[in-house]
Amino acid sequence: MPPYTVSADLKAWIPVLHACGYGIQKICHILGIKKTLVYKTLSLHHSFGTIENPSHRYQARNRLLSSTDLQFVLDLLQSKPTIYLDEIQNELLRHLGCQISIPSLFRTLQHLNFTIFMNHIAEIAPDANMLLFGDEAARDICTLFWKDGRALKGVQCVQKKHFL
């Protein structure tokens, strides 16, 4: 379960309420938060004049592929929509000298909204006009037709409209 986080707007009320004379217990009751958060926020406010620690560095990874690399991958996928990940990896290394792992490349493609299913469909039907989609959603009492399209043995199946 991810840790419980409190918005900055809610934290901003802690020093305001404390300055108005409210105690720790009353602030916790009003804002619905725990005492440790109140103490920590008041300590930060007293030390730095802000509710967030200004020296805290958020851990984020740098992107492995530059915008030029991403454009190369997009162009490569457009020219060869069914290319494998290891082939993209080899092309990046050969043409741009960029070395990237398969999982990182997979996450990059997900970030670019590409999926293996899209590539598989592109292999089957290179022209989008060749695709036909059918809706197989079940019908129920709220729709116009009966739920099941079956008939007794020897009886012709007839589609009937169902009105409420």
> Which structural class matches the secondary elements?
mainly alpha
* Strand content bin: under 5%
From the alpha-carbon coordinates, what is the Rg to the nearest angstrom? 29 Å
Number of DSSP helices? 7
For the sheet with most strands, the description reads: none
Given as residue ranges, the uncertain stretches (5+ residues, pLDDT < 50) are: none
Helix content: 40-55%
- Give a count of the beta strands, DSSP E runs of length 2 or more: 0
How far is the first residue's CA from the last residue's CA?
Answer: 45 Å
State the main characteristics.
mainly alpha; 164 residues; flat; Homeodomain-like_sf
Task: Provide a descriptive summary of the structure in words.
The protein is mainly alpha-helical and 164 residues long. Among the domains are: 41 residues, no CATH class; 58 residues. It has seven helices and no strands.
List the helices and strands and how they pair.
Elements: H1 8-19, H2 24-31, H3 35-48, H4 67-79, H5 85-96, H6 102-111, H7 116-124
Helix pairs in contact: 1-3
Provide a compact summary of the structure:
The chain is mostly helical and 164 residues long. Among the domains are: 8-48, no CATH class; 67-124.
